[in-house]
Amino acid sequence: MLTLFLVLPLVGAIVSVLMPKERDQDAKWLALGFSGAAFVVSIMVFALFDARVDSYQFVDTFEWISAPDAGFVIRYTVGVDGLSVPLVLLLGLLTVVSVLVSWRIEVKPRQYFAWLLLMETSVAGVFLSLDLIQFFLFWELELLPMFMLISQWGSGRRLYSATKFLLYTLAGSAFMLVGFLVLGAAAGTYEIADLVDNRVTEAAVPLTLVFWAIMLAFLVKLPTFPLHTWLPDAHTDAPTAVSVMLAGVLLKMGGYGILRIALPILPQQAHDSRVILATLAGFSVIWGAVITLRQTDLKRLVAYSSVSHMGYVLLGVSALGPLALSGAAMQMFTHGTITGLLFVVVGLIYDRTHTREIAQMSGLLHRMPLVGSVMIIAGLASLGLPGMSGFVAELTTFLGSLEAHPVATTAAIFGVVLSAGYILWTVQRVLHGPQTERWRDLTDATAWWEVTAMASLVIVILAVGIFPSLLTNAVEAGVAPIARIVGGIS
Amino acid sequence: MSAVSTSLYLGPVLALYLGAGVVLLADLIGGRRAMVGAWALAALVVAAAAGVLQALLGASGPALHDSIVVDGFSLFFTFLLVAVTGAVILATSEWAAQIEDRGEFYGLLLVSVGSMVLLVQSNDLITLFVALETTSLAQFILAGIARNDRSSEAGLKYLLSGAVAAAVLLYGFAFLFGMAGTTSLPGIAAFVRDGAEGLRLPLLMAIVFVAAGVGFKMAIFPFHAWVPDVYQGSPTPVGSFLSVASKAAGFALVLRLFYTGLGGAGTSVTQDWAVLFGVFAAASMLFGNIGALVQTNVKRILGYSSIAQAGNIAVGIAAVAAGNTIGPSGVLFFIGTYAATNLGAFLAVNAVSGRLGSDDIADYAGLVKRAPVTAAVLALCLASLTGLPPTAGFIAKVYVFNSAIQAGHPWLIALVAVAVVNTAISAFYYLRWVRTMLLDEPSDDTAIETPGGARAVLLLASVGVLFFGLWPTPLIQAAQRAAAALLA
Fold it and tell me: Which sequence spans correspond to the domains of chain A?
C-alpha cells in the first residue's frame, strides 16, 4: 500500500509528460486524479494504522542492491510508524491542495504538474524509507523538481532563488551522505532499524562529527538560524503551490530526519549536543519572529514566520523527553496545515491584487470576505489560539521542554507573543482599515477549486484543535521508542 | 602454445586489427561506395564474439610467454570498449559519410580500440607500452581528422602532450625494470612484495613517474591540460570516443599496473600511491568543476566535467588502502555507468551541434521543443553526471564513496567529503544546462531531426543510465568478479 502511495504520483508525472501537447488543459485533471488517488491511499493508511502496535506497519521490502562483499547491501524498505503516518497524510492532502491552487497555470502545464507530482513521490520516499541510502536517494530526488518549479514558474529573482535553494540543500546533504556511509561502514548495515537496535559506538571518525554531518542537512532543511536564508528567497519567488509544498511538507523532512535518524541512531551525541540545539532553536524562534515583524512583503512575512515556527520543532527535539518530542512531531503536522493555508490565502490575494506589498493593501475583508475570513482563521491558528491545532502542539512542546531548557523555552514563549503581534498587525493592515478606490473591483475567491483548497485545510486545523487525540495517539506511539532510547542516556 | 589457442587468447585484438585492414582495403577498392562503416561494425561483432568464446571456453591465464593475460578483468573491458566503439560508429555514421577520410576514420578507430583491448590484456610492461602507444598514435590522428584549424590544433596538442606523457611513463618503467630486473607484472609484484625493503625512495620515484604517465590517459589533474582543448577542437564523434573509451582504458591501465604490478593491497608502498591518487582525485574534482563553472561552450563543459569525473573514479583507486577489491570494483562499476552516461551526453551534443551550428550553451535554449528525444536523453545523462537519483550516476557515486569509507581511514573520509562538496558544485553547471534545455524559450522553433542510428544509440544509452540506476546489482557483481581477477 505504501509502495502504491510512492508510485502513484510518479506514474502521474510520467503520463503527464507523455501526453500530447494539444491536451495541455487536461494536465491539471490528470494531476488531480493521481494526487487524489494518492491522498485516498494516505487516508486509508492513516485510518488503518494501529497506534498500539509498537513497530513499523504496512512494510514492503525486498533486497534492492546486493553487494555484500563491498558492504553495500541496500534493501528497499518502506513502512510507517506513528511518527511518519501523520506526515504521509499531510503530504497527500497538501499535494491535492497544491494542484488545486495551480488550476490556472498557463505556462507548460504538463511539465509543471509532472514536476509537482515527482516532488510528491520524492517527499513520500523520504517519509517512508527505512534504509539510509534509500532515504538519501529520495532526499536528493526532491532537488530537481523543486529547482525546476521555482526557476521556471516562479517570479522575481527566481533563478537566483532556485539556485540558492539547490546549493544550500546539496551542501547539507553532501555531508549527510558521508555521515551515512561512515555509519554504514561501522555497523555493516544501512537499515535504520538495525542501526537503532545495535548502536554504533565507534567509527573511523569521532561520532560527534558524524552526528553534526548528518544534522547539517536537517538543520538546513528545517531551517534553523543561521542556515535559514535560502527559505525566504525560495518562498518569495516560488509559485503558490510550491510555497505550500515547501512550507507544508518539505521543511518537515528536516524535523523528520532528526527524529527518525539522528536521535535514535546517535542518542549519546544528541544528548551531548542538546544545549547547542536548544540555543539554535531559541535563536530561530526569536530571530525569525523579529525579522517577520519587519517584513513589508506579505509572502516574505509568512516565510519568515516559518523560520520562527520551525524553531519550536527544534526546541522540542532538543529537550529529548517524550512530551517535548510529541510536541515537536505535532508541531510539524500543524505547521504544515496552518502555513500551507496561509500561503494559499496569500496566493489568492496576490492573484487578484497583483501585489504583495502590505502597505498597498487595505480593507480587503470587505471585498473578499471569504478569503479574509480564512486568513483570520489561519492567522489565529498560527499564533496558537486554543481550539486550533497550533495551540495543542505548541503547548505540548513548551510543557515538555521547560524543565530541560528553561531559558530557550522562555525565549520561545516570548516568540509566541511576537507572533501574535505580527499576525494581528498584518491582519489589521491587510484586511481592515479604510476601503480604497484601488481595490473597489476585487472579487472574492468563489471558484470551486479555491474554496475546496481552503476548506480542506480549515477543516483539518479545526478538527485537530478540537480533537487532538486524532493526532496525539499516533504521534505519541511514534515518539515513544525514540524517547526510550534517548531517555536511557545520561 | 598452438596457433589455435594463441588466436583464442588474442582473438578480439586480432579481429579488430584485421578489421582495420579490411576497412582500409574496402575504402581503397570501393571508394565512396564502400560500406566501410558496416565493415567496421562487423569487425566489432567478430571481436565481441571472440570475447564470448574466451569466456565460454575458459581461456584464462597468461599466454604468449606471459606477455598477455586473459581474465575476468580483461573480458570486462573488452566488452565495454567494443560496445562503446560500436555505439560511436552507429551514432555518427551520418557525420562520417560527409568527411573525406572516412576509411581512415573507421580504420584508425579500430586500430585504436584493438590496441586498447591489447592494453587491458597486457601482463608485461613492454606489451603494455606498445599497446598504449599504438592506441595513442591512432587517437592523435583521429583528433586532427577534420582537417580544419581547430581540429589540427587539437591533434597537435594531443600529440605533443601525449609524447611527453609517454616519455615520462617510459622513464618510470625503466626505474621499475632496473629494480625488479623483469618487465612482467607478476614479477614486479613479487619484487614489491618481497625484495623492496630499503628501496622505498626509488620505488616511490618510479611510481610518481608512472602515475604521471597514466594520469595523462585518465585525464586527471595535473595532467589534464589537453582535455578541454582537444574535446573542443576534435570532431565530436572523436571526442566522445576519447572521453569514454580512452579514459576507460586509462583506468584499466592504472588498475592493472598498480593492483597487479605494484603490490595491490597490503604493502607499505601501496599506502604511498593510495595517498598519491587521493591527492590527484581531490585536485581533479576541484579543478574540473571550477573550470566547468565558467564555460559557455558545451564541449568545453563536457571536457572539464570529464576531468572532474576522473577525480570521482580515482577515489576508488585511492580506496586501495582498504586492502581489498571494493575500490577497484567501484572503479569498474563507475566506468561502466560513466560509459553509458557520457556517451549519451556526447552523442546527444553531436546529434544537435551540427544543426545548431554552434556549441554555445545559449543555443541549447528550449531544445526540448526542437528535439524532444535528444534533449530528454541529454537531460537524463546530465542528471546522471551530477549523481542525481534515480540514475546510474547516483549509485556509482554512492558505491565508490562507500568503497573509500569502508577502508576506515580518516583521510579517505576527508577525501569523500571533498568529493561530495564537489558534487554540489557540479550540480550548478549541469543543472543550469538541463534547465536551459527544458524550460527556456528557443530562439527559433524549427525541429531538429536526429538520425535514426544516433537516436537508437541515445535511447540505448538512456536505458542503460536508468537500468543501472534502478537495478545496479548485475553490473556491480560483474565489476566485483572482474576486480577479483586483479588480485588473483
Answer: 2-487
- Whose grid coordinates read 546517535? A266
* Interface residue B358 vs chain A (CB under 8 A): no
The closest alpha carbon to A326, from A448, A180, A471, A426, belongs to A471
- Whole-number Cα distances in Å, B342 to A299, B224, B247, B377, B421: 42, 17, 11, 11, 21
Q: Judge: B428–A66 Cβ closer than 8 Å, yes or no.
A: no
**Which of A62, A135, A67, A131 minimizes the C-alpha distance to B472?**
A67
Separate counts of helices (H) and strands (E) for chain A: 23, 2
Contacts of A102 (CB under 8 A, 6+ apart): A28, A31, A112, A113, A116, A239, A240, A241
Q: Using a CB-CB distance cutoff of 8 angstroms, which residues of chain A are in contact with residue B476?
A: 65-67, 70, 72
Smallest CA–CA distance, residue B402 to chain A, in Å, is 6
Number of inter-chain CB pairs under 8 A, A vs B? 115
B480 has a chain A CB within 8 A of its CB: yes
Residues A84, A478 contacting (CB under 8 angstroms): yes
What ipTM was reported for this prediction?
0.89
Is B435 near chain A, with CB under 8 Å? yes
Give residue for cell 546486493: A66
Say how many C-beta atoms besides its own lie within 10 A of residue B289's C-beta.
25
Please check whether residue A466 touches B, CB under 8 A.
no
Tally of CB atoms within 10 A around B158: 26
Contact of B469 with B395, CB cutoff 8 Å? yes
Q: Is A269 helix (H, G, I), strand (E, B) or coil?
A: helix
A138 interfaces chain B, CB cutoff of 8 Å: yes
> What pLDDT, on a 0 to 100 scale, did the predictor assign at position A486?
85
**Residue A62: exposure state from Cβ atoms within 10 A (0-12, 13-18, ≥19):** exposed
Q: Which candidate in A126, A140, A169 is best for mutational testing of the B interface (most B CBs within 10 A)?
A: A140
Shortest Cα distance, chain B CAs vs residue A71, angstroms: 7
Helix or strand run (H / E) with residue A59 = strand A57-67
Distance CA B215, CA A421 (A): 64
DSSP H or E stretch at residue A78: strand A72-80
Q: Rounded CA gap, A53 and A56, in Å?
A: 8
Residue A175 has its nearest CB partner, among B409, B417, B477, at B417
- Supply the DSSP symbol for B297: B
DSSP string, B137-169: HHHHHHHTTT-SHHHHHHHHHHHHHHHHHHHHH
At A25-38, the pLDDT tens digits run 888 899 999 999 99
Residue A171 and residue B124: Cα distance in Å, rounded?
A: 45
CB contact under 8 A, B439 and A167: no
Dump pLDDT digits (tens) for B25-80. 988 888 766 688 888 999 999 999 998 888 888 777 788 888 888 988 999 999 99
- What Å distances lie between residue B258 and A225, B123, B318, CA to CA? 48, 12, 11
- Candidates A386, A397, A114, A176; CA nearest to A282 is A397
DSSP A81-133: -TTTHHHHHHHHHHHHHHHHHTTT--SSHHHHHHHHHHHHHHHHHHHHB-BHH
For strands B68-70 and A57-67, give the pairing. unpaired
Average pLDDT over residues B210-232: 87
Task: Please name the residues between 183 and 202 in chain A that touch chain B, using a CB distance below 8 Å.
Answer: 184-185
Q: Are A441 and A287 in contact (CB under 8 A)?
A: no
